[in-house]
Design brief:
The chain is α+β, with helices and mostly antiparallel strands and about 400 residues long. It folds into two domains: about 250 residues, 3-Layer(bba) Sandwich (FAD/NAD(P)-binding domain), CATH 3.50.50.60; about 150 residues, D-Amino Acid Oxidase, Chain A, domain 2 (2-Layer Sandwich), CATH 3.30.9. It is built from ten helices and 19 strands. A hairpin with a 4-residue loop joins strand 14 and strand 15. The chain is globular, with a radius of gyration of 21 Å. The structure holds flavin-adenine dinucleotide. Flavin-adenine dinucleotide (FAD) binds next to helix 1, strand 2, strand 13 and strand 17. Flavin-adenine dinucleotide binds next to helix 1, strand 2, strand 13 and strand 17.
Length: about 400
């Protein structure tokens, strides 16, 4: 197949004989960030791109994402990224040539009384940057929520009518297919063991199928990125957090649908999905490594059901249908690093998406492509997301503390 190499051999004695031994740009990781980067590199006219994924496309955090899109953030760079990215995901068919599964449900954020000032500040920031966002009192908020929604403990409500959710697999595959149509090659089942560096300059990667030479390497390997960085002497303070997603069946007759809701005091988010499904994202439990339990804990599922039923009465009759757990790669300020890796020419990284990267993926892919092509980010100035900000003590502000609601 021209332009698309799924380099999986039928000869069991050979390791990916179709894997090229050189490419201009190698992307490590086939999550949504890797696929988006391949797409925007192709858009920028970079033809010789090879994406290496150790498993399957979207098999990391991307495939486990709740894929919620919102624009409510505490700092300018992330609002801009979320806003621009939403436009791409909502118009994916035209921009990328594939469906994104975007569903505009509206997004409602609930905060405690002591967080009301921060909420109003964030809404004002969003509005100043073109986001359709409203800050409402709890009484006004009831008007954008299903009848009978319990607002106890809530001091203020933010509402974004244009937000919702998408399909993370569709977006990843859409970006990847469009990239391959423009000549990018994608090799699945190829793990990168290390980044090869000579005299402070990238020369390629060592893979489970042998070395590949490259002028530039882009690291978007999710939870695998910190180790690859450590291998070239570049340390980032990234830790891991396990987040659980509980699948519930709504009583459709009494609750046909509901908006996407972020309950900051309750530390959970929930959104509708196809049919009668509601997905609940809950818990941010630190774990030591990328090796974690991938199923939902029964007591956490019960906790999620109670919490959602407390807000939305009809959910007391919801049925539990399993779920899954996924990993967040978290930085000290719960915002990613999108930058060149200092001290290693030709090495670029996008890491530490801290559980809210999916919605940012189009602008992340574009920024990483800009770093490769122009040496700097252009559409959105992302210097606030620089690699060195932690050692400089220049962390980004998060109105709601160290959580995914950053
Ligand atoms: C449970 C959960 C819910 C979430 N909900 C939301 C949400 O509602 N909204 C939102 O915006 N974001 C959400 N996120 C976050 C979002 O999904 C992630 O930020 C985003 O998908 C990260 O994409 P990525 O490409 O950086 O990483 P990943 O998807 O993890 O991709 C990295 C890829 O690299 C591969 N890889 C790793 N090491 C190597 C190696 N050495 N060689 C080759 N390949 C390698 C992996 O196999 C993987 O496929 C959620 C995440 C989780 C886990």
């Amino acid at each position: 197949m021209r332009g698309w190499e799924v380099c999986v051999s039928t000869d069991k004695t050979a390791k990916n004989p179709g894997l090229p031994n050189a490419a201009d740009v190698v992307i490590v990781g086939g999550g949504v960030m890797g696929a988006a980067t391949a797409f925007y590199l192709a858009q920028a006219g970079v033809r010789d791109v090879l994406l290496l994924e150790r498993d399957a496309l979207g098999s990391g955090g991307t495939g486990r994402s709740m894929a919620i899109l919102r624009m409510h953030y505490s700092n300018e760079v992330t609002v801009r990224m979320a806003h621009e990215s939403r436009l791409v995901i909502a118009d994916f068919e035209r921009v990328v040539g594939a469906p994104s599964g975007f569903v505009k449900t509206g997004y409602v954020l609930l905060v405690a009384p002591e967080q009301a000032t921060a909420l109003r500040k964030n809404v004002a920031l969003g509005r100043s940057l073109g986001v359709d966002a409203r800050s409402l009192s709890p009484g006004e908020g009831a008007g954008v929520l299903p009848a009978g929604f319990a607002l106890d403990g809530v001091g203020a409500v933010a509402f974004e009518p244009d937000s919702g959710y998408a399909d993370s697999s569709a977006v990843t595959n859409g970006f990847a297919s469009a990239a391959r149509r423009s000549g990018a090659r994608i090799a699945l089942g190829v793990g990168v063991r290390s980044v090869l560096v000579r005299n402070g300059k990238v020369t390629g990667v060592d893979t489970t199928s042998g070395p590949v030479n490259a002028r530039v390497v882009v690291l978007v390997a999710g939870a695998g990125t910190p180790d690859l960085l450590r291998g070239v002497g570049a340390d980032l303070p990234v830790s891991f957090v396990r987040h659980q997603v509980v699948k519930l069946h709504r009583p459709l007759d009494r609750l046909p649908t509901h908006p996407t809701i972020a309950d900051v005091p309750g530390c959970l988010s929930f959104r509708p999905d196809s049919g009668d499904l509601t997905l609940v994202g809950i818990r941010e439990d630190p774990v030591d490594s990328a090796d974690y339990v991938r199923t939902v804990d029964t007591e956490v599922a019960l906790e999620a059901m109670d919490a959602v039923a407390h807000r939305l009465g009809p959910m007391a009759d919801a049925g539990w249908d399993g779920g899954w757990a996924g990993l967040f790669d978290v930085t000290p300020d719960w915002h990613p690093v999108i930058d060149h890796v200092p001290g290693v020419e030709g090495l670029v990284c996008g890491v530490g998406f801290s559980g809210h990267g999916f919605k940012l993926s189009p602008t992340v892919g574009r920024a990483l492509a800009e770093l490769v092509v122009h040496g700097e980010t252009r559409m959105i100035d992302m210097r606030a997301l620089r690699f060195t900000r932690f050692e400089e003590g220049e962390l980004l502000r998060s109105a709601y503390g160290g959580t995914v609601f950053a």
